[in-house]
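Appendix C reproduces, verbatim, an entry submitted by the partner laboratory led by Prof. M.T., so that reviewers can inspect both the input and the predicted structure.
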Amino acid sequence: MSSSNYYKDLSNESLLGVYLNKVYPKIFEATKYVIKRIDNLDLQHKGVDLVLTNKNITYYVDEKAQLDYLNKSLPTFAFELSYLKNDNLHKGWLYDGHKLTNIYFLITNIYTKNGKDLSDGIRKVKITGVYRDKLIQVLNDLGLSAPKLSEIDKKIRLKSEHGKIPIKELNPKTEGYIYYSKDNKAESPINLVLKLKFLEKTKISSVLFNS
């Protein structure tokens, strides 16, 4: 990614955050949950963008936004299994033991008021909540435990096949598949790409907001 693209993405992320800060109180008003955005970099690195509290209940929320796909409605979301940094292999955020995340907020269907410039305003978004533990449990039940996915990950990197890779545990048309971004991403991530309808059907997720 060029430096200009990096700063553009950073700006878009900030602009989206301002918009979401106005949306969240409306979502959680009825449930009495209080939501707070976290600016602490150490907590952010641990997968905490937001803290959601209600009396003695606290959830750590990681926002995951499809900012690379503005003005598009994708049927899937990518969950990171691994990536490279300085030629060293690292666990992706889904199974990173250092992350404190309880819930992912998947921010999709991001439509702007003017082209790909968020500074002119956001027309609509969809926010889907996903419990991390529930997602991992459903994957376990399908035979996709953390060790199994790690094994698949290693085999894919050895073969160096860029692109979509079906696996027997998931129906690629209705559930999901693996995607290796070997040629178009600097960190060469391997992602578990899951259908949003599959997440809803298995009660892993719930739609919190769809403007």
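DSSP finds five helices and eleven strands in the chain. Additional entries are available on request from the coordinating office.
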